[in-house]
Structure formats: structure tokens, C-alpha cells
């Protein structure tokens, strides 16, 4: 996604501060990518994107009170090389399972957005079509729909048995190897200053020495896709799997027999271990026929229906309120869940 137009009052900022280009134009052309990331134009665009849906939050309001000064000061820090990532705020969420989120401060999150604005297009054009996490026009519902299409094709319109191998990578975000990630980024980013900035962000967090990226960073979403693109390439190019869908660290592929699924599991595990320093979750490798039901991303796919996973259905009925009704109704919309939808409406209408 390329940066959109700057905010409407942006030109007045430029006039007041004496020009629109950042103050590091003396740098060589080899640092053009860094110039784009740290330009004041891109920082204002990053701010506009970051603040959507967050303007009522106290830390965001405080930053916005002196927005012009804060962004020009940030641009000066970045351009001079003085910028350093701040510590994270740690908290726990349940969505539904417990997850530990590490939240960066507002200034750092603007930097994350500024980086993604510029470098995401460099990688987006290299990703496979069937990678669905944190990409424009993709998402969980599109991934489920795509897997259903694959099941239909692989079973020749449900006239033969097809086997789905569903896998999950164990502790993915905590297991990302910093050195490997930076190497993958460096393959396509030749700008030393940009790599220095990315290195600082990668190394701003660790679960153990040289390992881990934080849940919650916008950059982590892009880094996850860059990292797991290696798995995508291996599955598509080396294993020659035609029907394969991945959403972050969850993926599913189709095979013709349980034995083939077993062989593929072993080969994928070996690849993950040797090349990405990761492992499949031993309790989350499942082989199912379409007729048995394929569990993927909160839904169960059957030949004549897509239904909510029972735990998803129970959570929706337990937690639905007037504040989150639209979210749970959205889950139902993409499944054959008319009764659940009616029950949620009845629970929250009063």
C-alpha cells in the first residue's frame, strides 16, 4: 500500500517550518529509501493512518496536542540517527486464548507506520497470492473462502475424498530469529540507514537473546509475512503443493492420502527447523477429510456448509454485548450460523 495524500493542513506546516523535504538531503542516493521513510510528508501520512480509531486514547491525544512539534522533532531524531526505540508496555488480552501484548509508545508506533508505508510494497509484490494475514483485500474470511474453493477443486466437486493437513507453528512470534529476519529483510533492502533503523526495531524486543518479535507492532505483522514467505516458497516451489493457504502461523494444504500428509508434515518440520529455527506445534497437526470437517481459523468447513467452531459459537453466545454485536454478527455472516445470529440479536436487542 503506497502512502495516500497528506493531511489537509499539511502544506501550512511545511510553510511554517521552511520546506517539505526532510533535513537529510545531503545523504547519498544509496539512502533514498531512508529519505522516503523519514520525510516529514511520510511521517504526517503515518500519523493519519496510525490515529484512525485511536483519537480518544489519552496517549494519542497528548501527542496530538503538539503534533507539529512532535513530528518535526521525530523527523530530526530519525535523520540524525539519534532515534532509539522506547521500552514496551506489557499487558495481557484474551482473544479467546491468553496472549501477552507489548505496546510501544505513540512516537514509536508512528515510526512503525512510516516504515511500513514505504517498505511494505517492496515485499508485497513477492508474497504468494495465498498468504492472507495482514494484507489488503485478504484476511481470515477470505482465507476460509479460499480453502473452501480448494476443497471443492481437490475433491472434484465432492466426488472423491480429499485430505486436508492443518498445521500451526509453535510459539511463532516468540521464536522469530533476529539474525534470520534481518538477513531476509536485507535481501531486498540495500539501504544501510534503513537497515540500521530496522535492526533497532527488531532488537528493541526479545523473548530470549536474539529471539522474538512483539505481538502488537505493525512492523511485526510485516516481519511475520517476510519470515514465513520462506515457508510459502518451500511449500509451493519445492513440495509443489497446488492447494495451500496460510494465515500468519496457521496453514492448511491438501493431499491425496493420509500417508502423503505424514510425509509432508515431516518435510515441513525439517524445513522449519533447519531454515527458520521453528517447529510445528505437536498438538495442532491434524489430518481430516472434507466430509469429516476441516477446522480452520474459527470455522469448520464441510461439503455442504461452513459452520462456526463450537468453541467460537460458545464464546459468541457468552460474550456478545451491545458494544461488540457487530463483530460477532460478522463471524456469523461468513458461516451457516443463522440460529446463532438470531440468538445474538435477541440477547443484545434489549
From TrEMBL:
Q: Where is the Reverse transcriptase domain?
A: 1-301
Q: Which organism is it from?
A: Candidatus Uhrbacteria bacterium CG10_big_fil_rev_8_21_14_0_10_50_16
Domain of life, source organism = Bacteria
What is the protein name given in its UniProt record?
A: RNA-dependent DNA polymerase
Q: Which InterPro entries has this protein been placed in?
A: DNA/RNA_pol_sf, GrpII_Intron_Splice-Mob/Def, RT_dom
PANTHER family found in the cross-reference section = NUCLEAR INTRON MATURASE 1, MITOCHONDRIAL-RELATED (PTHR34047), PROTEIN YKFC (PTHR34047:SF8)
Write the signal peptide boundaries. none
Amino acid at each position: 500500500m503506497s502512502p495516500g495524500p497528506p493531511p489537509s493542513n499539511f502544506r501550512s506546516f511545511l510553510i511554517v517550518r521552511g520546506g517539505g523535504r526532510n533535513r537529510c538531503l545531503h545523504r547519498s542516493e544509496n539512502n533514498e529509501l531512508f529519505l522516503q521513510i523519514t520525510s516529514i510528508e511520510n511521517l504526517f501520512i503515518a500519523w493519519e493512518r496510525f490515529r484512525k480509531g485511536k483519537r480518544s486514547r489519552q496517549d494519542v491525544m497528548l501527542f496530538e496536542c503538539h503534533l507539529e512539534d512532535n513530528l518535526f522533532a521525530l523527523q530530526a531524531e530519525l535523520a540524525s540517527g539519534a532515534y532509539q526505540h522506547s521500552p514496551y508496555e506489557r499487558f495481557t488480552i484474551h482473544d479467546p486464548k491468553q496472549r501477552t501484548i507489548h505496546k510501544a509508545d505513540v512516537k514509536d508506533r508512528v515510526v512503525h507506520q512510516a516504515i511500513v508505508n514505504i517498505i511494505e510494497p517492496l515485499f508485497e509484490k513477492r508474497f504468494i497470492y495465498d498468504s492472507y494475514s495482514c494484507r489488503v483485500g485478504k484476511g481470515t474470511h477470505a482465507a476460509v473462502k479460499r480453502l473452501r474453493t480448494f476443497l471443492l477443486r481437490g475433491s472434484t466437486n465432492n466426488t472423491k475424498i480429499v485430505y486436508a493437513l492443518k498445521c500451526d507453528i509453535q510459539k511463532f512470534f516468540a521464536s522469530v530469529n533476529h539474525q534470520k529476519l534481518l538477513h531476509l529483510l536485507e535481501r531486498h533492502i540495500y539501504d544501510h540507514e534503513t537497515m540500521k533503523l530496522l535492526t533497532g526495531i527488531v532488537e528493541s524486543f526479545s523473548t530470549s537473546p536474539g529471539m522474538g518479535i512483539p505481538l502488537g507492532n505493525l512492523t511485526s505483522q510485516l516481519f511475520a509475512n517476510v519470515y514465513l514467505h520462506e515457508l510459502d516458497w518451500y511449500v509451493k516451489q519445492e513440495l509443489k503443493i497446488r492447494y495451500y493457504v496460510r494465515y500468519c502461523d496457521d496453514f492448511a494444504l491438501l493431499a491425496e492420502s493420509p500417508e502423503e500428509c505424514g510425509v509432508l508434515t515431516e518435510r515441513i518440520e525439517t524445513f522449519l527447523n533447519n531454515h527458520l529455527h521453528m517447529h510445528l506445534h505437536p498438538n495442532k497437526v491434524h489430518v481430516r477429510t472434507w466430509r469429516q470437517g476441516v477446522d480452520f481459523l474459527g470455522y469448520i468447513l464441510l461439503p455442504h456448509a461452513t459452520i462456526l467452531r463450537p468453541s467460537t459459537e460458545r464464546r459468541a453466545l457468552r460474550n456478545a454485548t451491545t458494544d461488540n454485536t457487530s463483530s460477532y454478527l460478522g463471524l456469523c455472516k461468513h458461516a451457516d450460523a443463522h440460529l446463532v445470529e438470531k440468538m445474538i440479536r435477541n440477547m443484545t436487542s434489549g
